[in-house]
Amino acid sequence: VMSILLHGDAAFAGQGVVYETFHLSDLPSYTTNGTIHVVVNNQIGFTTDPRMARSSPYPTDVARVVNAPIFHVNADDPEAVMYVCSVAAEWRNTFNKDVVVDLVCYRRRGHNEMDEPMFTQPLMYKQIHKQVPVLKKYADKLIADGTVTLQEFEEEIAKYDRICEEAYTRSKDNKILHIKHWLDSPWPGFFNVNGEPKSMSCPPTGISEELLTHIGNVASSVPVEDFKIHSGLSRILKARAEMTKNRLVDWALAEYMAFGSVLKEGIHVRLSGQDVERGTF
Description:
InterPro entries: 2oxoglutarate_DH_E1 (IPR011603), DH_E1 (IPR001017), THDP-binding (IPR029061). By secondary structure, this protein is an alpha/beta fold. The protein folds into three domains: about 5-130, Rossmann fold, CATH 3.40.50.970; about 130-165; about 210-265, no CATH class.
């Protein structure tokens, strides 16, 4: 599996979650063996001036915190973009580290249907309106080179338009939306054929007292013989054994029993997060 994340420039520079996931990216239990980050750098954040949006020249500078290589590429040059993307993929597969592709481009229209960028960026948008769209620019180059003919280009465009039009027409015939088709992992038996949830009642999940006692005893013992255990810890374990004997439960023991019962059914339990390894809680 190779993870690819697509970002806008404003989000990449300004959302804390980007910086946080970079810092998590190389931790022993969290690494994804490298993510390819693709930043569509087109002033997506309401065409805010870069100098008003961040303190560094590039939105991708936050990736420098983990020394990820950053490729800045002119998005008006599709072949350069393809080349950079394949280098990024090779880097990720060779070194299993994050890598960033910064597509330096522009946005022809506003942030949404209501937004007129000429209000805030008149000079830049005069330039953008003169700019030949990348598809036309690249097609003209290929036709001039003799790589494709005008007819082949027009056929490709027509083919793509046809795919979109047919899909649009088909979408009008859809009367039922099957929710379960859109779930990552449809739970069998959770929805009926119309996508409505079936009854929400849960099967009983209780376990026998005998099993609870067994888990309580295991949770209050040390698996290794002749193991020197900290006196503070042995006090906690003794109290836990005492509670199990007296049929009492506190939060920690209840949690142990929940995990233990799931493990007993052969289901893997992974704990992660603050203070887990230290066992403070």
